[in-house]
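It is worth pausing here to work through a concrete case rather than discussing structure prediction in the abstract. The textbook approach is simple: state the sequence, then state the predicted structure, then interpret. We follow exactly that order.
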Amino acid sequence: MIGFTYGRFFMLKLQLLSLFTAGSLLLHPLTAAAADAGETVALTPPDKMPAVAGVVSLVFDRDLNGTIFEIYRIQPEGEFLYYTYRVTLCDGLTVDCPLWEGEYRLVLSCVCGDSAERRERRCHFSISDPDNDLSFDQSHLIYEFHADPEAELDTSDGTDFVNDQRTLTAEFDYHLAQPAFFLGDLDGDQNANAADAALILMAAAEGGAGAATGLTSLAEEEADINGDQVINSVDAAELLLYAAANAAGNFSGDLLDYVRAGADRAENATVTTEIDN
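Step two, the predicted structure:
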C-alpha cells in the first residue's frame, strides 16, 4: 500500500477531476501499434543467418500482454541473441521466428502479481533440416502460452509428428501459473475505473520522483494504458475516457478493447487524411 498525506490526496482528486472534465477534448495518445486479434507477426532473420531451416511460432493470448521473449542460438563460443520481442496491447498474437539448423534457448520474461520483479522461464529446443536442403518448411515448432491464475505450477503438453518422412512439426501447449493481464485493473477488482486512474497517478508521481512506483510488475504493465512503456497522466486520462464511455453505455468492452478500437480509429483517420491530401 502506498502511503500519502491528506494534502497529496487532495491534489490527486484535483488531478483526477481536471483529467475527467477535459476528457472529451483529449485525443487517444496511442504510440504502440496494437496487434489485431489473431495477428501473425513474422520477424526478420538476423543478417548473419545464411538460410533458414525452420521456424518457431510463439502464440500468446491476451492474458499475457507484457511478456518479453528472447531467443538465443547456442554455439561453442557462447549464446547469441537472435530475437527479442515485447507483447503489447495484443488480443491474441503469433510471432514467427525463422531459424537455421541448430540448438536454441527460449527465455520468457513474465510479469508477477506479487512482486515488482519479473519471473524468467526457459526452455531448450532445436531446429533440424532432415534432408539438408536449407528449405524453410522443414521444422516447425509451435509454442502456445496461456496464463492460468488458478494453477500453482506451470503445466505443459506437447505432440510432434513427421509429415512425408522429412518435415518435423511439434506443438506444445503451456499453461503458466501467473495472474491474467487486465489492462487498467491495478486494484484487482476486475474493473478499470477512476480508482485505478488514481493509482496510476500515484505511481507516476513516485516514479517521476526517482522512486519505485510501488506496483507489481503485472500492475506496471496494466498501468501503461497506451503501451509506450511510460506510466504518466496520459495513461490515467485514457482510462478515465474509457470509464466515462463505459458508464454512459457507449462502449461495452473492456479497456483493452477500447484502446485497440481507438488505435484503429486513429489509423483510419490518418489514412483518410493522406488520401484527402
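Step three, interpretation. The beta strands are 39-42, 54-60, 68-75, 78-86, 93-99, 102-110, 119-127, 139-147, 155-163, 167-176. The first helix runs from residue 6 to 21.
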